[in-house]
Amino acid sequence: MIISPSLLAANFLDLQTDCKMLDESEADWFHLDVMDGRFVNNISYGLPVIQQMRPTTKKLFDVHLMIEEPEKYTEAFRKAGADILTVHFEACRHLHRNIQQIKEMGMVAGVAINPHTPVQMLQDILEEVDLVLIMSVNPGFGGQKFIPHTYNKIRTLRQRIDQLGLPVKIEIDGGVDLNNARQLAEAGAHVLVAGSAVFHSPDPKATISALKHITD
Ligand SMILES: O=C(CO)[C@@H](O)[C@H](O)COP(=O)(O)O
Ligand SMILES: [Fe+2]
Fold first, then answer.
1. What is the 3-state secondary structure (H, E, C) of 23-73?
2. Known catalytic residues?
3. Which long-range contacts (CB under 8 A, 24 or more apart) does 114-118 make?
4. What pLDDT, on the 0 to 100 scale, is given for residue 47?
5. C-alpha count within 13 angstroms, C-beta hemisphere, residue 206
6. Which residues participate in the annotated binding site for a divalent metal cation?
7. Whole-angstrom Cα distance, residue 205 to residue 15?
8. How far does the centroid of ligand 1 lie from the alpha carbon of residue 135, in Å?
9. Which PROSITE patterns would you find in this protein's record (predicted)?
10. Which atom of ligand 1 is nearest to the CA of 194?
């Protein structure tokens, strides 16, 4: 299982310590949630913070853009250090073009869907993307309750991906913890994002390791 802890739940006054902890842990990616106060009702952090975090690790920066008109910022996020750039299906008028743009800039291209968006809506973009991020809470905030219908969405999408023989990864984001991680893996998830479950646990490194080896 690929583990991508979300720094939305980190200590912003001491990000360096949390970055170091993640770097030394079994985390695979750093999940970075960018919010603009328009696509979602919250504002998080953006380019300068990501840029300053970049030298703290060689691990991949998995940037989740919860912003309107993400195509305007593709190059800026590349320059700030993004390796994986995920845009929302619901925020893109020209999703196909945006995905091409992300790949042309040498990044892994992801598309995210909100809980109300059926996975079937991705039918005509599936061959173009490297990753599908299924939101298992409504985007905008950490610490929300996992929506159980997500399991059905994962199973449906995983079946379609396997049917087509595509190398697309399924990432699950929102309310992921040690109680649902195994079931998410069994449903077909490849990547788990966890914010609160990692950073609010007494031993974040141990929680990351437990999530990583959930199916061992
Ligand atoms: O994208 C988002 C929220 O919009 C997530 O990445 C959250 O940051 C996950 O936090 P937890 O639900 O794990 O606390
Ligand atoms: Fe996220």
1. HHCCCCEEEEEEEECCCCCCECCCHHHHHHHHHHCCCEEEEEEECCCHHHH
2. 33, 173
3. 114/88, 114/89, 114/90, 114/138, 114/139, 115/147, 115/149, 115/150, 117/89, 117/90, 118/153
4. 98
5. 4
6. 31, 33, 64, 173
7. 15
8. 9
9. RIBUL_P_3_EPIMER_1 (PS01085), RIBUL_P_3_EPIMER_2 (PS01086)
10. 13
Report helix angle 204-212 to 15-24, nearest 10: 40
Span from the CA of 161 to the centroid of ligand 1 (angstroms): 25
Residue nearest to atom 7 of ligand 1 (CA): 142
Band (pLDDT 50/70/90 cuts) for residue 59 is very high
- The CA 160 to ligand 2 mean position distance, Å, reads 23
- pTM, full prediction: 0.98
CA distance 9 to 11: 7
Of 8, 34, 41, 178, the residue with max ligand 1 atoms within 8 A of its CB, to mutate for a pocket test, comes to 8
CA proximity to 80, closest of 104, 63, 68: 63
The total number of residues shown for the chain amounts to: 216
Interface predicted TM-score (ipTM) over 0.90: yes
**Domains, the chain, ranges and CATH?**
2-212 (3.20.20.70)
For ligand 1, residues with CB inside 6 Å are 6, 8-9, 31, 33, 64, 66, 137, 139-144, 173-176, 193-197
Measured distance CA(72)–CA(156) in Å, rounded: 32
Kindly indicate the confidence band of residue 166, based on its pLDDT and cuts at 50, 70 and 90: very high
Label the pairing between strands 84-88 and 108-113. parallel
